[in-house]
Amino acid sequence: MLGNPVFYQQQINRKRTWKPVCGVKTSITPGAEITVGRCLALRVLELDVQAWVDAVRHTPELPLVPEAVRCLELASEEENNHDVVLSMAAQRFSDLISEQDQQTAYQLQTLWREHPDHPIVKAGVLESSVFFVLLPILRLLSGSATLRVIANDISTDESRHAAQNRQMAIDLGYSWSPSLDKLRRDTVAWMVEGLDVPSHHLGNPQPWLQSSDTLLERMEAPLLQDTRRPSYIAFFEQANSGLPIYS
Amino acid sequence: MDWKNIGNQPGQAMVGRVKSWLQNPAGRLPVSCTVRAVEDDFADIFSSWKFASKALRFGAGCAINLEKYRSIPFGGIGQITFVLDEAHPEYAELEQFLSLNPAFNKDIVFRVIEVDDSMETIDEELPGIEDSWEQVAWKLNRGEHIAVDLSKLRPRGTTNKHGLVASGPVSFASIYIAIARFIWEPSLTRLCAVYSRINEVLRRGGTYRNGAITLFVDYQHPEAKEYLEMPRYRIEWAKRALVVDAGLHESDILPLVMKSMAEGDLFLAKKRFDDTGNRLYSQVCMEIFLKSTDTCTLHHINLGELEIEQIPQAFEDGMKFLCQLHRHSNVDSLGVYLPASESKQVGLGVLGLANFLAIYGISYKSFMYAFEAFLDFLHSAGANSEPALVELLQDLTETIAPHEVATRAVLASLQGYMRAAKVAKAYGMERAFTIAPTATSSFNYRDAQGYVTTPNIAPPIARSVLRDSQEFGLLEADYHPDCETAAEVGFDVYFRLACCFQRAMNLTGLAHAISFDVWDQQPINEGFILRWLKSPLWTTYYRTATLGLDAVDKSRILCATNGECESCAN
């Protein structure tokens, strides 16, 4: 059997249960509106990740250790949660998502779906190099406590997903193709191309593109050091419906 | 030294509103919070809205205790109609808003509210609007039809000559609607919705945007179940608390209570009385117990900035400052709060304990063990009252070796409490000590080595954090790098340490309580409820996330082939 059971068990142990919550509509940081709208438009990819994970999980005679298979089962359930909460956010902030942007997101979805790389590779690349930059944009740049809580909640799963999907691809002997790399970069480039928040050091497209590149190549993004700080929510300064639920 | 300067000395941590009041005594009062116990009486219910609004407008907290409320149908089912000048920028928005509330027919204009003054007062001056809520409620209750003219309200977002930002007619219409719904179908949950709506609207405008409301209901209230089951969207801007006693553990409502606590939707407060049998009510953040309409004045000792030997003096000085502040607060001036002469309490707390322990290299666990041992020793020695305690603590000072740092720190804290208690009693205080959340003020202070101080006695959730507020955005804080985190300390140690602080405060005879966070490490189950009920703790507060917080880190992927991964390191 392939894979280090200790590593996969650690991922299972890191699981934290949360319930989808979406607070009130808030204002968005000026200059980040288009990018936030596109981040939300790309929610459509969450269920594709779920489908890819399920495809791997149901592979006959999958040569992975049982702990890895359990990780896949959990990931499948969790992706559903991500779709639910991001759809709630997309509805709440619908005015940020132009019809054209939603169409483009669907076109990108088609490209990801049709790409011939192995499903676990596509899941790993999408999680680690697209969602890994999408979530901190919502958290650090959106200006919305509602979206920050959602990004925090999804992050509790996404860090594990990125790690385990990348590791499974390695364990199974798969890697990404240059064309998937290009699709990844095109996706991120489209997402951040309108970002213009001069007051923030991450308020332009370059650090996000660079971070996506380094996350794919070296599994690290030094420019995203700021994301290491967890949030202490001032719960009297936020509407109740947006407060996280961990139980 | 002028008493006002004491608050600026090292080791003293004034709360923000006290600082601003000292600079501008004509500004808002230096009190943080108030409590109103609402009688089961129309007049008292209606006037409580204004009471809450007044507190919120000054960015203070307001606890509303609804234990006595019972849903008795009102006398009438009057109608309300809104009038707005067609030229007003929010006319179309109001029309759309009211169309979502079909009980209100904008085409039928009933007669204008007969009190002419009220029409005049629905204007830029909020006290007039507050009065109109009461008037509207009475008229609806009498079955009258009312038109409320909102034309004089400035559009949302505009600023007046005083720099106040308007919330706009649509926002204020929503308060009248909440009131009307309550009058039409009286219930505890609809009454709660009124307070929530008032806070929601007021925080959109005005100068201060950090007012807070917590509602309190007894666990045996006939509508307690509905109160606990009320969905969040119906009470967006008020927190829920339940007043309980030992019977909670046997109550049918316990499963619902535990679920609400686990989801972060419910605080608990034990029912409390003073020595003469007067009822005391917990305030917004739970840690101060007040008579109805009393206010709380807070001040903190910044432990992170102090040497062990400086702690007793800092406590004494802090209490002198606080008692003088209480005496000069001018709280009587508004005519709504209990005057200082009858308000015989203040709240002296601490912050930066985690910094202090880090600087001295003391672990939370060893501090807690030393604290427990010390308190048990005092108890066994029969030193449970002030003179005996002071004498015994003095004797012990000479017996503790210099290297017993944790024990020295505990002794200094106890001496601090005793010295401060002597001051408080000289001022006639009946309660004087607390452990408040300090979630805002702790960010404004530094420890002796320049790091941000941690809140109250709790370890921080991480050594570097972002304070996340919809009102004020993200605020970075870097705590002492040697601070233990909540995940490292563990909930059991924290629980026992909080019990130690409550016991220490109880020794003075002047204890309020502790805002006691229940971390996510601790499942909310019957065992925990029983443990808490039997403990000296008076409250439970927020459900704080302490685990898995590294997941937000997007600067690295911790897979098995990544050098930083724990599984490889193992």
Detailed description of the structure:
- The complex is a heterodimer of chains A (247) and B (570).
- With 247 residues, chain A is mainly α.
- In chain A, 62% of the residues lie in helices and 1% in strands.
- The relative contact order of chain A is 0.19.
- Chain B has 570 residues and is α/β, with parallel strands linked by helices.
- Helix content of chain B is 38%, strand content 16%.
- Chain B has helices spanning 3-6, 16-23, 42-57, 91-99, 116-121, 126-141, 169-184, 188-204, 224-229, 254-262, 311-328, 353-360, 364-380, 386-397, 405-426, 486-489, 491-507, 526-534, 566-569, and strands spanning 12-14, 33-37, 61-65, 79-83, 145-149, 212-218, 239-244, 267-270, 272-273, 279-282, 289-290, 295-296, 298-302, 345-351, 431-435, 464-469, 473-478, 511-514, 518-519, 539-540, 543-544.
- In chain B, the strands form 6 sheets. A 7-stranded mixed sheet of chain B has the order 12-2-3-6-7-8-20.
- In chain B, strand 7 (239-244), helix 10 (254-262) and strand 8 form a beta-alpha-beta unit.
- In chain B, helix 13 packs parallel to helix 17.
- Chain B starts with a helix and ends with a helix.
- The chains are: A mainly alpha (247), B alpha/beta (570).
- Chains A and B meet through helix 1, helix 6, helix 7 and strand 1 of A and strand 16 and strand 17 of B.
What attributes characterize this protein structure?
heterodimer; A: 247 residues; mainly alpha; B: 570 residues; alpha/beta; 7-stranded mixed beta sheet; 19 helices; 16% strand
